[in-house]
């Protein structure tokens, strides 16, 4: 069994080492340093494996620490008079909640996929090795937290109390895994896929854990009795788990449903689902296609079939902002204090809208839909890769993406003008116009930006994974810069004028770059 | 018409896949490209089609207009895994393709004629391509790649996903098409290669080599091909 555990850990580490090397190789400055030979170098692999292992241990400790510290912090803040007992109470109920939701054996992971499906390991031995490993590691971590960390922050927390809670944690883990498997065996689905049941259990246990708020705390004596009861339940559970014979089969079925060959791919499936065609878009009104031919027809069909994905969130944002502006307008008219502060905010902190416009822009989801549902296939055809076709489609797409994003932008632009008018009677017309144009230009900027980086850095490979690290850097950079700009304090007139100039400048350069470079860069890798 | 490949070299990292390949393919023939797994058949096609960067190599098309550099528009490339734009129906996809290539396409044929060519039923033509089976997608892909009349047709394992009736139809179609095209077809099925192809080319030890049919009987010819494939050196 130890051998099995060692093998699965080895697969896990090899997988993460090779993926780390692969990612590092993609960095421009690492190109010459990591060659094909690096994959065979034991020393480098050991170093990276060692660092990876260390980091994963540190990560587990950090997460556990955050969890425990968070609980202690909440108990101290909310129940300062009785924080230790409140902690015991909350910890107990959250552990029971963990019993249901912290499912290690039936969840799907890369390690399991490779071990069980690809390497066809003996499922039962694998299962037992992992069961014991999970109990051992979580017990060690929890023991450290309960006996040292908690006692450090809550000096009146006794060692005996720590031991009782630790035993309950182990019992909960065993009973939880057993419950999950029995449920699956009986009903052929994972219990938490039953939303009603999931929320009922969540609400009940979260509700019980919040009882200290009303000064109701489960006494330690009761917890000790429950722990003995749980011990009684966990014995048949562990026997059941150790006798389980068809773990491979269960896992294969779950894996078939979830299909996560690895977590990255799982994310891609989710992404793909996000850009999946919606049924109501399948039928297109004939009038919309009338007189359209070639790429115009192609593009129209693409946007008509993705209307729901593209327009839905833009419309929702527009509606949300209409409500927000009406509420703010009402507040400003009725409460003069707020009138002043909101007016002041719009005057000097208009830059905040850079971040808001960043968040509401649909550019990234639109380009994703373009790739998954269209370019991924079409870029394999030579006629689609002709420079004039690439540029022609870029222009048409830009027009549509910009229009979609303008829906909430116009609402926000008008909303700001509306609030500025309420805030002061002497507002200059120039201020209103520049403020409005600033928002519109930001919207156009993000539309251009996402489409341009998609065309210049086409980040996906044939398997639809984001493989270009430069694309990830640019998207991260976009966020950081937007965040940084949003903190700038400048009067709205100055900011609007500077913003407008910069945006126009950026758009001109970006379009020029697309013209020059996109025919070479917009391809499949 | 001839397709000339001159000094083609392609490596992945330090691994050389194609080494100094010089070869000429001629019009009117179907070439069967054989090679062991990983020999570089798809890499060879991708190199011609400019899908991947190559270390070196030149491609020329020599015909009645002279000797010109090969352009991607001269090539129709049928992939082993068909990839089609899933948001279009089969009919919309074909219509779109005919629209944009109308100057190259035989105008005497209607869209229905093309569907008849690949035996795609009217009710299937209206389905979104995302709902097509692998074989149906493959039919669409083959259709798209042949109707624009490219001078060179590259087919990577094209018939494997088709049912036996469709395979037979496709074989007949390729036999008709070869008259004024250069067709290169990669396959792992020796029978298909010997049955359909006029020339067998082996990609082995990073080089292309033609296996002359001579006058030997088919059994001996097949044995000869297998022996040659077995001889691939491991390096």
Give an overview in words.
The complex is a heterodimer of chains A (525) and B (235). With 525 residues, chain A is an all-alpha fold. Helices cover 78% and strands 0% of the residues of chain A. Chain A is built from 20 helices and no strands. Helix content of chain B is 33%, strand content 28%. In chain B, the strands form 2 sheets. Chain B has a 6-stranded mixed beta sheet with strand order 6-7-8-3-9-10, with helices on both faces. In chain B, strands 2-1-4-5 form a 4-stranded antiparallel beta sheet, covered by helices on one side. Chain B has one domain (2-230): Rossmann fold (3-Layer(aba) Sandwich). The termini of chain B are far apart. At the A-B interface, helix 12 and helix 16 of A face strand 6 and helix 2 of B.
- Name given to the CATH homologous superfamily of chain B: P-loop containing nucleotide triphosphate hydrolases
Number of helices of chain A: 20
Mean pLDDT of chain A: 83
Largest interface: A-B, 27 and 30 residues
Number of strands of chain B: 10
Strand content of chain A: under 5%
Short description:
Chain A is an all-alpha fold and 525 residues long.
Q: Can you lay out the helices and strands and say which pair or pack?
A:
The complex is a heterodimer of chains A (525) and B (235).
Chain A: H1 2-26, H2 42-78, H3 83-101, H4 110-118, H5 123-153, H6 159-187, H7 195-209, H8 220-243, H9 247-258, H10 263-274, H11 286-289, H12 294-305, H13 307-334, H14 336-348, H15 352-360, H16 363-378, H17 387-423, H18 429-457, H19 469-486, H20 492-521
Chain B: E1 2-12, E2 15-26, E3 29-34, H1 41-48, E4 56-63, E5 66-69, E6 75-78, H2 90-100, H3 111-117, H4 122-125, H5 134-147, E7 152-156, H6 164-177, E8 182-186, H7 190-196, E9 199-204, E10 207-211, H8 218-230
Parallel strand pairs in B: 3-8, 3-9, 6-7, 7-8
Antiparallel strand pairs in B: 1-2, 1-4, 4-5, 9-10
